[in-house]
Amino acid sequence: MNLTLEGKRALVCGASQGIGLAIAAELALMGAQCILLARNEELLRSAVARLDNTLQQVHRYHVVDFNDAAATEALLASIVAEGPVHILVNNSGGPAAGPITEATEDQFLQAFQQHLLTNHRLTKAVMGRMKEEGYGRIINIVSTSVKIPLKNLGVSNTIRGAVASWAKTMANELGQFGITVNNVLPGATRTGRLEAIVNNAAQKKGTGTAEVEAEMIAEIPARRFGDPAEIAAVAAFLATPAAAYVNGTSIPVDGGRTGSI
User: Fold this and answer.
1) Number of alpha carbons in the 13 Å side-chain half-sphere of residue 235
2) Which family does it belong to (predicted)?
3) Domain limits of the chain?
4) Considering the domain 9-187+228-252, what is its CATH architecture?
5) Which of 50, 90, 110, 211 is deepest in the core (most CB within 10 A)?
6) What is the average pLDDT score of the chain?
7) For the segment 11-63, what is each residue's pLDDT rounded down to a tens digit?
8) Do the Cβ atoms of 185 and 250 come closer than 8 Å?
9) DSSP for 199-229, written as a single string
10) Which residue, among 86, 192, 95, 191, has the nearest Cα to 139 in the 3D structure?
11) pTM of the full predicted structure?
12) Which of 15, 55, 16 shows the shortest CA–CA distance to 33?
């Protein structure tokens, strides 16, 4: 099985911490040269220093705010001008929790911009060179709400579904060029995002976070939360030559919690 990524360049979004950083670490271990994108320079600097460079890869980072479309496009143009990006990991923190009946139009618009439009902007920037290389892996970190909507995540459920449909359409159009587009759907994973959801639920219920976590874990067949490295392992496989015929999929990595087949 060909799992090496030696000679491949990977652009990883939201890579300063959590799932994004775990994916960058795994890609680096497999030989990829990683370019990390996020907003926090201090965390990015620390993240790059932790990446494996056994194959003499030169990893680096760029500070970017995806809400600034012009700056994002300029940065992407400079990265692509230096060489092809073979692997793109679209990853961004999810919208705030809350019922859909209380969501504002601005919340939907902001989430649409942050997730779908940013994914589209990044993909369009790199896909030309991917076509030239005959190799491309676009991996979107989404949510299990793509399969079954999650309670109290109204805006997130809506936007994640749109991203999944966008990704499937992209997969259909780009597959002929040796480019795959797949979604990884993390379940409850030990990240800052999960901590925020737990704290929000505890505050609304007037209970402790331990009680909220226990209720969540009881719904997971594995009886535990996931680790970012476990999400990263699936994303990294999708980036390899071995996954060339996996295209247009949405793969839950959730300990079995999602109730659909």
Assistant:
1) 33
2) Belongs to the short-chain dehydrogenases/reductases (SDR) family.
3) 9-187+228-252, 188-225
4) 3-Layer(aba) Sandwich (3.40)
5) 90
6) 96
7) 999 999 999 999 999 999 999 999 999 999 999 999 999 999 999 999 999 99
8) yes
9) HHHHHHHTS-HHHHHHHHHHT-TTSS-B-HH
10) 86
11) 0.96
12) 55
